[in-house]
Amino acid sequence: MNLTNCGRTTEFILVGLPCVLGLESVMYASIFLLYTLCLMGNGLIIMMVITDRHLQKPMYFFLSNLSFEDIGHTTTFIPKLLLNYLSANNSICFYCCVIQLCFYFLFGVTEFFIITSISLDRYVAICHPLRHSTIMTSGVCLKLIIAAWFGGFFSIIFQVAMIANLPYCTSNIINHFYCDVGPVLKIAGGDTRLIEALGFLVAVVVVVSSLVFTLISYFFILCTVLQMPSTSRQQKAFSTCVSHLVVVSLLYESVFFVYLRPTIKNSSFSMTKYVSILYTFITPVLNPFIYTIRNNEVKDSVRRMIGRKVTGLRNI
Known about the structure:
It comes from Pantherophis guttatus (Corn snake). The protein has helices at residues 24-51, 58-75, 78-87, 94-127, 132-135, 138-164, 181-186, 193-226, 231-259, 270-292, 296-314, and strands spanning 11-14, 91-93, 173-174.
């Protein structure tokens, strides 16, 4: 086919999530529930960090940014997915797909930088507690977050721009429930090797370096925890670190499976859709609970918030 005479596709068709016939309403309810939990859990963290001065510390600053990222990440595709279930129309316009892809990866890549910042803060707080306030100043934290968001933007913008300019002549059916790089390149015409190589390079540099830094940080944290004289403090710190690493491992393992592959054209994305559910649905819901469930400061903040609400109602 002569790709130079190929007209630009105006819309794509998303295959969607695998679903057993007759269980569409169950799928819709499950997705809606997970999305609601994500908005409530992450929104609560953001609100508490903004309104409670006791939580205006580096750790919670990073957690509020992670919560904002999780809300943005899921919002890029879940509302459209829910709308598709209601309307039975799985189409998405070309530019809507490009915008979805851009923001999806902006939030996704930024998450790794934020997780790295959280591990750095935990390392300094536990291994060098006396120097924590002088190292992790508000200026340093702000610079780390700005670097995370700019790093996420520049990691994906060139790849997205090249994808937007590819011809799509042979098919407009995307074998996924959102516009992902792999399934989109699968149906693209022209030479996609440069885009695939760029995407693979970004995945290796961002994901692998973030994982290595995070693991090294938690290794030193665990070494410090094991040297603590108090057994109760050891158990609490150890259980907190393990719970953090469980969520981190779910994220990294699923991303490794989906994105760390050198070729896309001959790949099948049927299994990828199942794995994608881990980091697109499950991880954003787990993050606010895992990072705060054993945190007494967050529990105290919730009590203070409830107390203010009760007092306000009594004064009405």
